[in-house]
Design goal:
heterodimer; A: about 150 residues; alpha/beta; 2 domains; two-stranded parallel ribbon; 8 strands; about 20% strand; B: alpha/beta; extended
């Protein structure tokens, strides 16, 4: 009887010596998976909601175009602007930009380039249609309308 | 006295290690934005050669499901005015699976469909002949909001995905999650799509009114 009692007493507290290791493991996981945003957004981004979302399988093929009202209205005005990489561009520059993005890809993947159109939900169809027209001209026909899942 | 102190501090105190790690962890948790590359896929039509006139497509009116959206975000669906998009996906499903005037090939297609999809088919001669002919056309105005356009496109996609998923006995969510990397999943995907092309035509927006 006394033996049992003694054993109970010694097992009273949980060993916490492995806690730092566990936390470090979590930390490394997040450090590895984190992609720090390498570019600053110049436009407002509230993505529209949709239900039929699809994931793209190859991330290296995606190039991003941001469309929305500029955050800095004193510099860029209030009309929606297009942002590619780090700078605002006009619709006329899209052709050049797509060709630059294509050059970054390997020869075989060039025609598979996908443009992820991250447009704000308040944008009108006018600018979107212009972008689509330019993308057709640039022969980058795969478009992804970036959106977030609908919460019901 | 001094010697004793030295001996005591021989080991580094590792008790606060967890706290430091926690601090770092919380920092990364807060700053992380898991990039979401999710959205609605679309393939634009090839560019037009200015020297070649646009092909004159003769298509029966009944084979086109027309959705017009004006600059006030009002809809005109098959010449009927609508205020919201409710039930649009169901209408499109009925339109695609109408089988009003199928040829032999499409009669065979009809026979392969599961009973739940056969039930939708109304064989209305005024609607689409068969899924291979059916086209859903979305025409917007330059003043239409992008949000509504995407909502309509979303519903059209939903209608098609539900048909595809029903054919292979999955839910639409499961069907969309199929990856073309896995051979078995790719086969399922192909089987769902077979002979029912997702024909969505997005017309150049009108320039009048709105803006």
């Amino acid at each position: 009887m006394s033996k049992f009692k003694k054993k109970n007493k010694t097992e009273e507290n949980i060993p916490t010596s492995a806690l730092p290791d566990i936390i470090f493991m979590l930390l490394f996981f997040f450090m590895v998976t984190t992609v720090l945003r390498e570019q600053e957004l110049l436009v407002e981004q509230k993505l529209p909601q949709a239900t039929q979302l699809q994931k793209l399988e190859k991330k290296s093929l995606i190039s991003y175009l941001y469309v929305g009202k500029p955050k800095n209205t004193s510099l860029y005005g209030t009309e929606p602007i297009i942002q590619a990489n780090d700078v605002p561009i006009t619709t006329n520059d899209i052709l050049l930009w797509v060709n630059q993005e294509k050059d970054n890809l390997s020869e075989a993947e060039r025609d598979q380039i996908t443009i992820s159109l991250k447009a704000d939900r308040d944008v009108k169809m006018g600018p979107i249609a212009d972008i689509q027209f330019e993308l057709r001209e640039a022969d980058a026909r795969k478009v992804l309308y970036a959106s977030v899942g609908k919460t019901k | 006295m001094a010697r004793k102190k030295n001996r005591m501090s021989q080991e580094v105190n590792a008790g606060s290690m967890a706290d430091i790690a926690f601090l770092l962890l919380i920092f990364f948790l807060v700053t992380t934005t898991i990039a979401s590359d999710k959205g609605i896929t679309n393939i634009l039509p090839p560019k037009q050669d200015p020297n070649v006139p646009p092909p004159d497509i003769k298509k029966n009116e009944r084979n086109i499901f027309k959705i017009l959206i004006n600059s006030n975000d009002q809809l005109l669906v098959e010449d009927d005015f609508r205020d919201n998009t409710e039930g649009l996906d169901q209408d499109i499903k009925e339109f695609v699976l109408n089988f009003g005037n199928p040829d032999q090939e499409n009669v065979d297609l009809y026979n392969t469909l599961p009973p739940s999809l056969k039930g939708i088919s109304s064989k209305d001669p005024e609607s689409s002949d068969h899924p291979n002919e059916a086209v859903v056309s979305i025409k917007t105005n330059r003043g239409t909001s992008y949000e509504l356009y995407l909502e309509v496109l979303d519903l059209v996609k939903k209608a098609y995905f539900e048909i595809y998923a029903e054919r292979v006995g999955l839910t639409a969510d499961e069907y969309r999650a199929l990856s073309s990397r896995d051979a078995a999943e790719k086969e399922l995907m192909q089987r769902g799509k077979e002979n029912i092309p997702m024909a969505i035509s997005i017309a150049e927006p009108d320039k009048t009114g709105g803006e």
